[in-house]
Design brief:
Blueprint lengths: L2 H26 L2 H4 L3 H21 L2 H19 L6 H22 L6 H26 L27 H16 L5 H17 L4 H15 L5 H20 L10 H8 L16 H11 L2 H18 L1
Helix pairs in contact: 1-3, 1-5, 3-4, 4-5, 4-6, 5-6, 7-8, 7-10, 8-9, 9-10, 9-11
Length: 314
């Protein structure tokens, strides 16, 4: 296979894999509800299965292994519907994050290097083992190993009055709306809507200072037009979801913005005022990325420029 065809096939695989990641993310963000929807479970299972098959065909063994492990856990849900809890949700999201990180590395300028990929697979293996064991315990009717409530200095359960009892569920609902906005065109109007959602998130736990700081970081990162939706979405959605679970469990002190989010929040806007996007050299995939990032007026202007450039070079 010549280099051009190989690059084109890789571009197709990456674009399809990202679509499958979207399906998995939508289902796993609130897997407690998704598990009660057989069709949603089937969609997630098929998404993991498709990534596994494509990775195997192209020889990406690390991607194949992680997708296979995720597929096996989803197969358990498919064949044995059970009521899940936040711990299962957290484990599923950790496994999903590994799969997403591998695909992002594959798309990066240096590709997916075997040594780094193998380390990521090894690091994720304990999570998948714990997830599979936990699911099997639930199926057998065993008592789930839910996290114990945090203890106060007096030895009693720590009060959770700072956030509503359904805090995590409310956050998940808002994050789903934000995820849909991140998938739309990167426009000032959509950024404004995302910041409005951040304001709603902040109001859910106004007396929890770590949560307020984290949401402020997310809002600042969104406000910076230099940060693309593609770079913002995975960091903000993941961190706010994990933090909401920590707040719900009374572990507010563990809530902290990651270096990645802090970097996005403090990035200096470019003097040119324009955002940047990354596209592959495969024409179809490049066109999809451009159409997603540009509005109609920008596409018209770009088309004219491309026509002029083609005439000049011919």
């Amino acid at each position: 296979m010549d280099g051009g065809n190989q690059q084109r096939i890789l571009g197709y695989f990456i674009e399809e894999a990202k679509e499958h990641l979207d399906t998995l993310e939508q289902g796993l963000l609130n897997v407690q509800e998704s598990a009660q929807d057989p069709e949603m479970v089937n969609e997630m299972f098929r998404a993991a299965h498709s990534v596994k098959g494509g990775a195997a065909m192209l020889g990406f063994s690390s991607l194949q292994k992680v997708a296979h492990r995720l597929e096996d856990c989803l197969k358990i849900l498919k064949e044995h519907p059970v009521k899940l809890d936040r711990h299962v949700e957290s484990l599923f999201l950790q496994g999903y994050d590994t799969l997403k990180d591998l695909i992002e590395q594959l798309q990066g300028p240096f590709g997916l290097r075997d040594d780094e990929a193998d380390k990521m697979v090894q690091a994720a293996e304990p999570t998948f083992k714990e997830l599979q064991t936990y699911l099997e315990r639930l199926i057998s009717g065993g008592e789930p190993a839910s996290a114990a409530p945090a203890k106060s200095a007096k030895g009693g359960a720590k009060a959770t009055g700072q956030a509503p009892e359904n805090f995590s569920a409310q956050v998940t609902g808002i994050l789903k709306q934000m995820l849909q906005l991140f998938k739309q065109s990167d426009t000032p109007a959509n950024r404004q809507k995302l910041q409005e959602n951040c304001h709603k998130l902040a109001k859910l736990a106004q007396t929890v200072e770590p949560w307020q700081i984290l949401v402020k970081n997310a809002s600042d990162a969104i406000a910076n037009s230099q940060n693309s939706f593609h770079s913002l979405a995975p960091v903000i959605i993941k961190e706010l979801k994990q933090a909401s679970d920590q707040v719900q469990q009374g572990k507010e002190s563990a809530v902290k913005a990651s270096p990645a989010l802090q970097k996005l929040a403090t990035a200096t806007p470019s003097k040119g005022g324009g955002k940047q996007i990354t596209i592959t050299v495969e024409p179809k995939a490049a066109a999809k990325a451009i159409v997603k990032a540009f509005d109609k007026r920008q596409l018209t202007q770009l088309t004219k420029l491309l026509v002029q450039a083609t005439r000049t070079s011919s």
